[in-house]
From TrEMBL:
Coiled coil: none annotated. Residues 24-124 form the Rhodanese domain. InterPro entries: Rhodanese-like_dom (IPR001763), Rhodanese-like_dom_sf (IPR036873), STR17/STR18/HARC1-like (IPR044684). This is Rhodanese domain-containing protein. One of its GO terms (molecular function) is catalytic activity. It comes from Spirodela intermedia (Intermediate duckweed). Pfam families: Rhodanese.
Length: 129
């Protein structure tokens, strides 16, 4: 008899909006996995955008280059808070990052919607910049 052992999925730590703000104030970096269009409408100061999904006429398509793109910006030991619009894409992205060996990565539950709702500072890029 052959048994195939599958390693368990890494446990995703999800933080709320207040914890996310505190982490960002203490050295964590913000990875925004929303689309470029969503990101251009506003994001926390210092956020880096790498879309996790693309919205196409055929539906949502996972960014096949996501892990490679993130690896060019962040090291596997960097402290990262992953956020999206509400926390759905970010939990998927966080799981993928943890599986790829990113050790200090947390999901931001509530996402940018919670950030904006609390009135925390939002950077809105100027057109043409």
């Amino acid at each position: 008899m052959v048994f195939l052992l599958r390693s368990p999925e890494p446990a995703v730590t999800t933080v709320d909006v207040h914890a996310a703000k505190d982490l960002l104030g203490s050295g964590h970096r913000y990875l925004d996995v929303r689309s470029a269009e969503e990101f251009s409408k506003g994001h926390p100061e210092g956020a880096v955008n790498v879309p996790y999904l693309f919205f196409t006429p055929e539906g949502r398509l996972k960014n096949a280059e996501f892990l490679d793109q993130v690896s060019k910006i962040f090291g596997k030991d960097d402290a990262i808070v992953v956020g999206c619009a509400s926390g759905v894409r970010s939990i998927q992205a966080t799981t993928d990052l943890l599986n790829a060996g990113f050790k200090n990565t947390k999901n931001f539950g509530g996402g940018f919607a919670a950030w904006a709702e609390k009135g925390f500072a939002v950077k809105v890029p100027q057109a043409g910049l």
